[in-house]
């Protein structure tokens, strides 16, 4: 072994993901690299030349990279280890859209080659720090890469919320909830709720209401130094806080949720410096036929 190590995170239960994981392990091991896998995944992978580790925040400690094979949900799982250790994460998409992934399954051989040769760049994405207060007391802390969403706990009744920006009340909404998102999360839950697409290099915070019954219920884009707050009114049923759709906590009536720029970013390994516009065109199969700007060979994929 050459002292180099990576952590492999896989979407278990999908045959394509297992086959891809086997290829990654085989080739990286042949190159003299140590491949760690989460202990809960080791048995299903059925490989002998891996090093199982507990799924704790330090699972990627002293690794140079986290390789994630799966969709955006698996990438968000990998992000938990990436953020904790400050380790870059490289995603291979096996899902549908896969906005967080850097490569597709058909690029897997190239991905492994680039990892072995250390031919990748690293960029940082801002995260969100989230806290929940009740009667002035801190009762919960969390974080998110994509979004923190406050949602109703029951289908029968709307949530009654007051939203606040930088310590000043903005509006009261009867709604299904509200999404507070990062630029990375602008193409996730916030997008499905009608929020804007924000380019990753733009540092900002988003607040997007979910089915709000109000005249003023537009998506908001504010400074990255702003503090977003959502107060669940005492007379309304409690709600639920979701962070990246993975970590959840119940919100009692009267709870106050504050969202601000995260102190710890998530680092992504990038193989290509393609414009974000091209990524949008490819991921959403946007029609661009007829575009006349630039060279004829520069038409984005998906045209």
Automatic annotation (TrEMBL):
Its family remark reads: Belongs to the NAD kinase family.
What is this enzyme's EC? 2.7.1.23
Keyword Kinase recorded: yes
The organism of origin for this protein: Carbonactinospora thermoautotrophica
Q: Return the protein name.
A: NAD kinase
GO molecular function (one): ATP binding
Its job: Involved in the regulation of the intracellular balance of NAD and NADP, and is a key enzyme in the biosynthesis of NADP. Catalyzes specifically the phosphorylation on 2'-hydroxyl of the adenosine moiety of NAD to yield NADP.
> Which residues hold NAD(+)?
72-73, 77, 146-147, 157, 176, 187-192
Q: Give the record's GO biological process terms.
A: NAD+ metabolic process; NADP+ biosynthetic process
């Amino acid at each position: 072994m050459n002292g180099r190590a990576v952590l492999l995170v896989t979407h278990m239960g999908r045959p394509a993901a297992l086959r891809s994981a086997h290829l990654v392990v085989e080739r990286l091991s042949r190159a003299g690299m140590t491949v760690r896998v989460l202990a809960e995944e080791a048995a299903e992978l059925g490989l002998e030349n891996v090093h199982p580790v507990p799924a704790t925040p330090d699972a990627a400690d002293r690794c140079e990279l986290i390789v994630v094979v799966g969709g955006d949900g698996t990438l968000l799982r990998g992000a938990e280890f990436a953020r904790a250790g400050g380790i870059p994460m490289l995603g291979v998409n096996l899902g549908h859209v896969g906005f967080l992934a850097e490569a597709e399954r058909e690029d897997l051989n190239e991905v492994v080659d680039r990892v072995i040769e250390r031919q990748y760049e690293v960029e940082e994405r801002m995260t969100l720090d989230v806290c929940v207060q009740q009667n002035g007391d801190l009762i919960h802390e969390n974080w998110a890469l994509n979004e923190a969403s406050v949602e109703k706990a029951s289908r029968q009744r709307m949530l009654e919320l007051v939203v606040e920006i930088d310590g000043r009340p903005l509006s009261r909404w009867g709604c299904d909830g509200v999404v507070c998102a990062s630029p990375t999360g602008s193409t996730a839950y916030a997008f499905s709720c009608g929020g804007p697409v924000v380019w990753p290099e733009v540092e900002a915070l988003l607040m997007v209401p979910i089915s709000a019954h109000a005249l003023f219920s537009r998506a908001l884009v504010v400074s990255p130094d702003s503090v977003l707050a959502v107060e669940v009114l005492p007379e309304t049923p409690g709600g639920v806080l979701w962070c990246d759709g993975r970590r959840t906590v119940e919100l009692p009536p009267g709870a106050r949720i504050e969202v601000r720029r995260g102190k710890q970013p998530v680092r992504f390994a990038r193989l290509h410096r393609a414009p974000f516009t091209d990524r949008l065109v490819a991921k959403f199969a946007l029609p661009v036929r007829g575009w006349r700007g630039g060279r004829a060979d520069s038409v984005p994929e998906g045209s």
